[in-house]
Amino acid sequence: MINKRFFGNLPDGREVYIYDIEDCDIKLSVMEFGAAMVSIYAPDINGADSDIICGYDTLDSYVEGDGYQGAVVGRWANRIDKGRFTLDGIDYSLYCNNGENHLHGGEVGFSHKLWSSEITGKSSVKFSYFSPDGEEGYPGNLKVCVEYKLCNNRIALTYTARSDKNTVINLTNHVYFNLSGYDSGKILDHELTVCAHSYLPTDEELIPTGEIRRVDNTPFDFRQKKTIGRDFNFSNNDINTAGGYDHCLVFEELDFSKPRIEAYDKKSGRGIRVYTDRPCVQLYTGNFLTNEKYPFKGGYPQSPQNAFCLETQIMPDSMNHSNFTVPILKAGELFESTTEFEFFIG
Ligand code: GAL
Fold this sequence. Notes:
The protein is mainly beta. It has one helix at 59-64, and strands at 2-9, 15-23, 26-31, 36-43, 49-51, 72-73, 79-80, 84-87, 90-93, 102-103, 116-121, 124-131, 142-151, 154-163, 167-168, 172-173, 176-177, 191-194, 196-199, 213-214, 226-227, 246-251, 261-265, 270-276, 280-284, 308-313, 328-329, 334-345. It has 1 helix and 28 strands. Residues 66-68, 103, 206, 246, 282, 284, 288, 311 line the site of beta-D-galactopyranose (GAL).
């Protein structure tokens, strides 16, 4: 079941609509601004519904507040060193919005665009955006779509894109989960399993150094279930430079049929499994959730580690590391990628 409702006007007057989608136990709301998820209501072990994602009450806060709440980020999720790369012998220079580096698509990335929308099925909505050649410095006119489909307590996000020039692309969704409910405090006691044998060490600006390091005997080893906070005080490791996890974990194998990640919250009994065709996930524990000016829904204050993101993607900055995933989308070819979030009660 889908219902479309008005959310607000952008500063330039354009109208923004939300779609409420309901199927089985889950109620998902998605909006045209940023093609973002604005709420996910899921039952706990006793059948009580809570909204398990962070976000804001007003459109203005989504426009002005930071954090990429629930949004689709691109053209390039994560960081690109100094915003520079070379493709087909041409040097490109992207807008640098994170110190000296490019982050999540630049000054006005996909997370801050108004997408057009259409209902594509009884529980699916598709958002589309046309990104002109040169936008934020990227080559190629790019038509990009993301479809949300809610079925059997699974939210499937399917991204497609096509460019008229060779270009680079790395799309993800930046939703922040707290399985106890977004207004429930820290997520450090959530249990996490990630089928990742390696991670990408970063420098102090969170740019990968180029090394792909085994997770063995590091805080990044989530192959056996452990709480997110267990190794937070691990000394002598770069986890502390980021104030928590903000790292790309590399999956052992690509296999869409098996979950790559499982997160579980004992308090509520809610869990999520993540299925993806992407080779990596950026595990981010909301270390920068500090903006006092933009509290979350109902005025709930932002606070670090009150939520976590599982941003499936290819390796960040991979155009600048020959040993990383190939980031190129060839002119005229179809880019297609799917990530699914499955909700369960245990
Ligand atoms: C994450 C990124 C963080 C931070 C955050 C947005 O994806 O890894 O370093 O920039 O987005 O606040």
